[in-house]
Amino acid sequence: MPYFGVTASFQSSRRIPNRKSSEASCLVSDWSEWSGCAERCKATYRLRRRHVTREPRNGGEACPALEEKAGCLEYWTQQGTLCKDSILPALITTGGYGKARRKRAVLSGRERLMAITKGCLHGNSSYTHWMKYLSEGHSVCVECQHPALDHKSLHCSGDGSGAQKNQLLHWQAVGNPRCRGTWKRVRQRDTCSCPSVHSFLFI
């Protein structure tokens, strides 16, 4: 009987695995480079992806998102010519996007938001959170820099440079076509000081 007891204990320890030691969370690769714009000469999106290098096992942490989108606009056709100057309304994104491209700021404008659609409140992606801070009546700063800057006119499309005083101009947030509205141009300056949540960039 003592021998049988030892044998039973030995078999039991082999048949019941240590669950914690076999648990494994998902592992993913680094992000790829951003793709080009999905389409040219219009507000669209770009992509970056990553892939799973190890699947989760035994209750390990699930895999995160494998794809991200961001708004973008390509100003050149496949033939290498500049897109026609018909990209309206003004396309804007958060000012933080400017840090990701070479800084060649030339002009900044101050605009007053007059009307905003409810679609600005429904952006669930990480790159649309900034839209929730848009509020009617607030003054915002919008920077005009390369590549949105037209080197001949030294203006950005939709910046209201040729608009009459108090004329309502239209804008749209890149990455969420439901987020759009109207604004009035207040003034043009070499520098413009606004809170980060009210600092934007022409695309």
Task: Give a description of the structure.
It is a single chain. The chain is mainly beta and about 200 residues long. Helices cover about 10% and strands about 30% of the residues. It has one domain. The strands form 4 sheets. The chain has a 6-stranded mixed β-barrel. Strand 8 (about 150) and strand 9 form a beta hairpin. The protein is elongated and about 70 Å long. Residues about 1-15 and about 95-105 have low confidence and may be disordered.
Task: Provide key terms for this protein.
mainly beta, disordered N terminus, 9% helix, 203 residues, TSP1_rpt_sf, 6-stranded mixed beta barrel, RPE-spondin, two-stranded antiparallel sheet, 12 strands, glycoprotein
Summary, kept brief:
With 203 residues, the chain is mostly beta strands. It has helices at residues 2-15, 19-22; strands spanning 27-28, 43-49, 52-54, 67-73, 90-94, 107-116, 139-144, 149-150, 155-156, 168-173, 180-189, 199-202. The protein has one domain (27-202).
